[in-house]
Protein: UDP-N-acetylglucosamine 1-carboxyvinyltransferase
Amino acid sequence: MNTILQDTQKHEAQKLDAQKAAAHVGLLSDTIIVNGGRPLRGRIDVRGAKNLVTKAMVASLLGDTKSVLRDVPDISDVHVVSRLLEIHGVEITGSPESGILVFDPANVAIAQSAEIDALSGSSRIPILFCGPLLHRLGHAFIPDLGGCRIGDRPIDFHLDALRAFGAVVDKLPSGINITAPNGLTGANIELPYPSVGATEQVLLTGVRAKGITELKNAAIEPEIMDLIAVLQKMGAIISIEPNRVILIEGVDSLKGYDHRALFDRNEAASWASAALATKGDIFCVGAKQQEMMTFLNVFRKIGGAFDIEEDGIRFYHPGGDLKPVVIETDVHPGFMTDWQQPLIVALTQAVGTSIVHETVYEDRFGFTEALVEMGADIEVHKNGLEGGYRRVPRRALEQAAVITGPTKLHGADIEVPDLRGGFSHLIAALTAQGQSRVSNVGLISRGYGDFAGKLQKLGADFSFAA
Ligand code: EPU
Structure:
């Protein structure tokens, strides 16, 4: 297929995803008009982490009894995973709006592949259904996977891990058919890279596999630790060993859980960046220091200020010039790849040249084109940049962005490309002088609960386009 056609198809798929996501959470329109240049000030609530909640929802499939999940955010990804669970026979009560969901897995059943397919366009979570469905039904089907359009996002680690447990993987034109004719058995697995999703795959599969699973080079993100806490409540035996090793002793059965989700550190970091970029002051109720230490260090180095309180963290611009930084994104405990996009908007206001090395994904600076259109000075180096002190070893797929500031941003018509890039567009529009029209904002609701309500609370001047 030629690249222009591919780009057009990607673009259309993106628009459709954005519209579906907007509909899930009841946004008035998929486009907002922002009058920028006003500091964001006020208090907002940060609920459970998208990247834990959606996985804990999948874990409910493994239980023999009901599970209760608290602090669920009202985001479109939660609606999609709810629908995916429902088509697999899980009965769900409660609502994302109320923050509590109850899952009853008594009647788990095989879903129609067309139904899975219809939902999967906007989520990568179906891949994590494999282990639980193989244990319960001996069969799983994975359609073409969606999620943010940030590079190819392969699933080879997932499939290799499932094969190591004894699953048989058949690639068909419509998707991937996975069976476990002889059940699943504990395995020794070493990940080529500490992938979050592949670690979750091994956890969700290993807990009910026969015998012991040893996972080397595992991801140890706080959301993974919280998923392990969920699984332990269900009856699993999982130990965290030194040097990224996780040991799982398979058990015969698991029960449901009752769990309050870890707060969303990506959401808190995003609002913190918004406070800095707009010279504002935002208190994130529910944010905690431990999971944000790496972010807080960088925030302080740039010249941002924060107060850690009992019930949350206050992030603010204390006055004076912001300073440039050099950041390498990395797996935990490094600087998260999901933090760089909103922070880059604040870096356009720093005095001097900052460098962000993106080492986790292969294509995560597409969003900077819109910032440049708005007046930012950002140069993207597709093959990364050599030289300088490095904490994270250089990776073949990495890219770098060089941001020189301070630059005045002005309003523009911009189109949200993905979840985190989208939030950064929103912050840029709020920072810029003049009016911006931001379309595809539905994509932002994939991971930011009630973002419009929160903007209102923070005094932003915006309206939904008719
Ligand atoms: N990778 C492979 N093969 C695989 C799996 C991953 O090569 O089979 C590579 C990826 O291409 C990437 C790297 O490994 O270069 C890391 O990917 P990882 O598997 O860790 O990412 P993920 O599980 O797909 C989750 C979050 C992302 C977050 C990353 C890194 C969810 C639903 N998504 O993705 O969140 O950026 O971990 O922390 O948990 C977001 O919230 O906006 C988002 C993209």
Remarks:
- The chain has two domains: 11-46+263-464, 50-260.
- The longest strand covers residues 352-358.
- Residues 50-51, 124, 148, 153-158, 193, 195-198, 219, 221, 266, 336-338, 360-361, 419-420, 447 surround EPU (CB under 6 Å).
